Amino acid sequence: MATTARTRRAEPPPAEETRAERRARTITTHSRGEKVRALRLGYYDLKRRRIGDVFRISDPAHFSERWMTRVPPNTPERITTGREALKQFHDGVIATRAENQAAGDAGSGAVDDVTDPDPLGDDA
User: How many CB atoms lie within 10 A of CB 36?
Assistant: First the structure.
């Protein structure tokens, strides 16, 4: 039986990998990446990485000493969402306010705008 052009195209050349094999190789390579922790705010893989986030980088060349540190492979991955970051910031503001009130910030020269009869200082 003679082979036609259609029959020849149905079989990929032996050196070519199939789409499924290429996808499996990509997923495996990405999951074997190195784990890092964010030391500062940064962006990787089109995502914002906040302080303390632990994530994988797909290539060791992507490592940046400016805002990442390497962590052991058994460290659990952790991503801070925007909502969590906002809550942490809010809690920090409230804690600072409470510390200032406990320390008696009126002695530090701060003006309390609630009790000051002239908050702008222009009533002479």
Answer: 23
